[in-house]
Amino acid sequence: MAKYLISFPSAAMVVPDSEFEAVGRDAHAVIDEAKAAGVYVFAGGIDESVPPVLVSANGLVSEGGYPWAPVLDGGFTVLELPSREDAVAWAARIAKACRCEQELRVFSFDPRA
Protein backbone atom coordinates (compact mmCIF):
# COMPACT_ATOMS: atom_id res chain seq x y z
CA MET A 1 0.00 0.00 0.00
CA ALA A 2 1.13 3.54 -0.72
CA LYS A 3 0.89 6.65 1.41
CA TYR A 4 -0.98 9.57 -0.15
CA LEU A 5 -0.80 13.25 0.73
CA ILE A 6 -4.14 15.04 0.47
CA SER A 7 -3.74 18.78 1.00
CA PHE A 8 -4.92 22.30 0.33
CA PRO A 9 -3.38 25.76 0.77
CA SER A 10 -5.06 28.08 3.26
CA ALA A 11 -6.18 30.44 0.49
CA ALA A 12 -8.25 27.64 -1.11
CA MET A 13 -10.57 27.40 1.89
CA VAL A 14 -12.97 30.29 1.40
CA VAL A 15 -15.73 29.57 3.88
CA PRO A 16 -18.15 32.04 5.44
CA ASP A 17 -17.67 32.42 9.19
CA SER A 18 -21.15 31.01 9.69
CA GLU A 19 -20.06 27.68 8.10
CA PHE A 20 -16.66 27.33 9.73
CA GLU A 21 -17.92 25.26 12.68
CA ALA A 22 -19.70 22.86 10.30
CA VAL A 23 -16.54 22.53 8.19
CA GLY A 24 -14.55 21.55 11.27
CA ARG A 25 -17.19 19.04 12.33
CA ASP A 26 -17.42 17.53 8.83
CA ALA A 27 -13.65 17.37 8.38
CA HIS A 28 -13.17 15.67 11.75
CA ALA A 29 -15.89 13.17 10.85
CA VAL A 30 -13.99 12.16 7.69
CA ILE A 31 -10.78 11.80 9.70
CA ASP A 32 -12.65 9.65 12.24
CA GLU A 33 -13.87 7.47 9.35
CA ALA A 34 -10.31 7.13 8.03
CA LYS A 35 -9.13 6.07 11.49
CA ALA A 36 -11.94 3.54 11.78
CA ALA A 37 -11.04 2.18 8.32
CA GLY A 38 -7.41 1.76 9.39
CA VAL A 39 -6.04 4.03 6.63
CA TYR A 40 -5.20 7.11 8.73
CA VAL A 41 -1.51 8.02 9.12
CA PHE A 42 -1.74 11.65 10.30
CA ALA A 43 -3.45 14.95 9.61
CA GLY A 44 -3.13 18.55 10.63
CA GLY A 45 -2.44 22.03 9.46
CA ILE A 46 0.61 24.25 9.33
CA ASP A 47 0.68 26.58 12.34
CA GLU A 48 0.84 29.87 10.47
CA SER A 49 1.58 31.82 13.67
CA VAL A 50 5.05 30.22 13.78
CA PRO A 51 7.28 31.51 10.97
CA PRO A 52 9.42 28.99 9.08
CA VAL A 53 13.20 28.87 9.30
CA LEU A 54 15.80 27.39 6.97
CA VAL A 55 18.39 25.14 8.61
CA SER A 56 21.63 24.57 6.68
CA ALA A 57 23.83 21.48 6.79
CA ASN A 58 26.13 23.20 9.30
CA GLY A 59 23.20 24.06 11.58
CA LEU A 60 22.96 27.74 10.64
CA VAL A 61 19.36 28.92 11.03
CA SER A 62 17.91 31.76 8.98
CA GLU A 63 14.44 33.26 9.16
CA GLY A 64 11.91 32.44 6.48
CA GLY A 65 11.43 29.60 4.05
CA TYR A 66 12.86 29.25 0.59
CA PRO A 67 12.50 32.74 -0.95
CA TRP A 68 11.74 31.29 -4.41
CA ALA A 69 9.12 28.75 -3.29
CA PRO A 70 5.39 29.30 -2.79
CA VAL A 71 4.22 29.67 0.79
CA LEU A 72 3.62 26.31 2.45
CA ASP A 73 0.48 26.52 4.54
CA GLY A 74 -2.93 24.91 4.85
CA GLY A 75 -4.14 21.47 5.79
CA PHE A 76 -2.58 18.07 5.20
CA THR A 77 -3.80 14.50 5.54
CA VAL A 78 -1.72 11.39 4.94
CA LEU A 79 -3.56 8.13 4.35
CA GLU A 80 -2.20 4.68 3.54
CA LEU A 81 -4.34 3.19 0.79
CA PRO A 82 -4.28 0.24 -1.62
CA SER A 83 -4.84 2.25 -4.82
CA ARG A 84 -4.92 5.66 -6.43
CA GLU A 85 -8.66 5.21 -6.97
CA ASP A 86 -9.12 4.81 -3.22
CA ALA A 87 -7.00 7.92 -2.68
CA VAL A 88 -9.16 9.91 -5.10
CA ALA A 89 -12.29 8.75 -3.26
CA TRP A 90 -10.89 9.84 0.11
CA ALA A 91 -9.70 13.15 -1.35
CA ALA A 92 -13.22 13.78 -2.63
CA ARG A 93 -14.64 13.12 0.84
CA ILE A 94 -12.15 15.55 2.38
CA ALA A 95 -12.88 18.13 -0.35
CA LYS A 96 -16.59 17.91 0.40
CA ALA A 97 -16.01 18.30 4.13
CA CYS A 98 -13.54 21.20 3.74
CA ARG A 99 -15.54 22.90 0.98
CA CYS A 100 -12.45 23.19 -1.22
CA GLU A 101 -10.52 21.15 -3.76
CA GLN A 102 -7.73 18.94 -2.51
CA GLU A 103 -4.37 18.24 -4.11
CA LEU A 104 -3.45 14.55 -4.21
CA ARG A 105 0.13 13.24 -4.28
CA VAL A 106 1.67 9.84 -3.67
CA PHE A 107 4.81 9.35 -1.59
CA SER A 108 7.59 7.37 -3.24
CA PHE A 109 8.32 4.17 -1.39
CA ASP A 110 11.63 4.14 0.44
CA PRO A 111 12.32 0.70 1.93
CA ARG A 112 14.78 2.19 4.45
CA ALA A 113 12.39 4.84 5.78
Automatic annotation (TrEMBL):
Classification via InterPro entries: Dimeric_a/b-barrel
Protein name, per record: Transcription initiation protein
Species, as recorded: Massilia eburnea
Organism placement in taxonomy: Bacteria, Pseudomonadati, Pseudomonadota, Betaproteobacteria, Burkholderiales
